[in-house]
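Annex B. Sample input.
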Amino acid sequence: MISVITAIYNQRAVNELFWEHLERATSNPFELIIIDNGCTDGSADFFESVGATVIRNGANYSYPHSQNQGIAVARYEWLAFLNNDIIVSPGWDQRLMESMNAHGLEVATVCGIEQIENAQATRRLKRRWKAIKNVLGLFGHSKTTLRLMHWLMYPDWEGFCRDRQQRFAQQIKPGFVGNTVMMRRSALAKIGIWDEHQQAADFDLFLRCKARARDVGDILPVHICLDAFVHHYIRLTMKAGYPPFADRDQLLDLSQKWSEQDRQWLLEMNR
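Annex B, continued. Sample output.
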C-alpha cells in the first residue's frame, strides 16, 4: 500500500482534476494525505469529502515542511510525494514500484515534460506544451480549460501512456523529475526526511542521494523511470497568489549547503 502526500494552496479546479485521475489511475490501495496550507476556496473540504486525511495548517508552509508533516502520519512502506498540478498515467504507481524493485532503487521519479528519454525528445515535448499552455492559458485555469490543454497535448492519453510503457518497460536513467517522487521508507534511515532549510528540496534530495551513494554506497542515486509518465501543468501553482511562507526565514539557497562541484550534478543529469 502507498501513502500519497500532497501539499495544496487553493486551486480547487486543479485539485479536483488531480483527484479524479489519481483515484482512477492508481493500481494499488493508497491513502491520500493532504497538507492544507491555508486554502480559502474549499479545497481542503473537498479532499476531506473524498476520504483524504487533511492536515490543516494555519499558514502557508514551504514544500519540505509540508512533506515532513505528511511523513509523520503516513502509515505505509511506499511514500509517494506528488504535486497537485499533475495528471498521473494509468498504473503510474505499479510501473514505478516494479522498476524500483527491478533495479534496487529506494528513490525514483517519473518522467514527463521536464525530462524523458533524451534531450531531443524532451525539447519537442516542451515546445508542444509551451505552445498549448501559452494560448489556452489566456482563458484561465478552469477545469474545462485544463482538460482541453491535456487533450490537445495528448489526444489519446491512454494510448500515449501505453506506448511508453511498452517501449520503455523497466528502463531507467539517472536524473530527477520533481513533481512525482516515489520513496521506500528504508531510504529515510539513510538520507533522512526532507531538509526544511531548502525550498528547492527536490533538488536537495537528488543531491543527498547522489552524495550518499558516493560516500557510503548503501543507496543508489535517484533515477527516472521511463515507462511511468506523468503530465505536469508546470508553474500553474505559481499563479495561485501564494502568501509568503510562514517558515521563510529559515530557508536557504542550495549554494549555501552544496559546493559548486556537487551542484554540477544537477546540470549533468539533464544531458
